[in-house]
Amino acid sequence: MRILNLTKETTENLLQDLLKRSPNNYQDYESSVNEIITDVRNRRNEALFEYTEKFDGVRLSADTIRVTEEEIEEAYAQIPESLLSVMRKSLENIRAYHEKQKTYSWFDSTNAGTILGQKVTPLAKAGVYVPGGKAAYPSSVLMNVIPAKVAGVSKIIMSTPPGKDGQVNPTTLAAAKEAGVDEIYKVGGAQAIAAMAFGTESVPKVDKIVGPGNIFVALAKKAVFGYVSIDSIAGPSEILVLADETANPVYVAADLLSQAEHDELASAILITTSEKLAREVSEQVDRFTAQLSRKAIIEKSLENYGYILVAPDMESAIATANEIASEHLEIVTANPFEVMTKIDHAGAIFLGEYSSEPLGDYFAGPNHVLPTNGTARFFSPLGVDDFIKKSSIISYSREALEPVYKDIVQFAENEQLTAHANSIKVRFEQQ
Fold first, then answer.
1. Which member of 98, 178, 262, 327 is catalytic?
2. How would DSSP label each residue in 374-420?
3. Percent of the chain residues past pLDDT 70, beyond the cut
4. Is 327 marked active-site?
5. N or C, which terminus of the chain has less Cβ within 10 Å?
6. Catalytic residue at 98?
7. Marked catalytic residue, from 178, 238, 262, 328
């Protein structure tokens, strides 16, 4: 990996480099995606089936688009019991963590006759997109579905592309069943997002769409936002490790590569105050890369977006970490909890040398759906709040309104909204 001294110039160049990975730079694909969305919106099932045959090589019908209970039972028969056991442990950890995020309705009343409050209501229908094809991501199923279940969403549907045989990956199906998905559809890509956003004869319209996907899925979610809610426009994965001379270079190198293997646009960055650690980590990265199955992807990722930055002190290292606002931030220092208090922007923060990033991906409980590309400055991890909505509650008696009604009238008349003012006046002044 390239080793650079941390300066104002290198930080600015790095930030510009990382911004090239933003989904906002996918404009070349937007017209194709918009065409698919419009077509599915207008022709519904007919268009859905055509795109599935074109892109996935599978001919669907109204009778085969939805996964059956028999198919789910067959999936269970193909999965080792040991893997099911691990998924169930992970599911319980995820559920326990998200239970603590629950928000409740509240009401405050006064003797003057006012009641103010907030009513919390779960979404009625949520749609979860799960990537398919050659890869299977049961962890993504759990992370997207469990918060919705904890929130109390009435109906959760899942859409995922089928394989060439017309079947969905068995581990994906088992994870969906374990998590409590109500309906599963064999559709992928932008056409799946359009189907969930607008509904077809087979796929129900939902209120919110969550879940990762490729460029076409990301752009489709962006395009349907406003018709439905979405979680975010996810960009490529990224990790930033903040380390001092106490860090183990073998562990740091392994953790950097855990994200570099995702795809060629993934970013892996180490910021350290130790030149010795920087050199040792670079050597260990080379050693591990030569042994790993996704060597070609890792090499391209590190060539494009891999950096080791040597900082003059921990304060400047922390400042740069806050500027980058990484999706995953590992703090491997003598006192990681102290450093953590100075971090303002990060999706998920991992403290200490045994809190490796994959722990969060699969098992610990916090959600692995995280803000990318610097959006941790204003976005949060996926959670229960993403699947609820809040209504304000206002109740005034006549006795409570009378002392303040003239104030409201004055405010409304100042804005030249006389009907607003009149709506208050009529209750106290003869018209």
1. 327
2. TGGGT-----GGGGEEEEEEEEE-HHHHGGGHHHHHHHHHHTT-HHH
3. 98
4. yes
5. C
6. no
7. 328
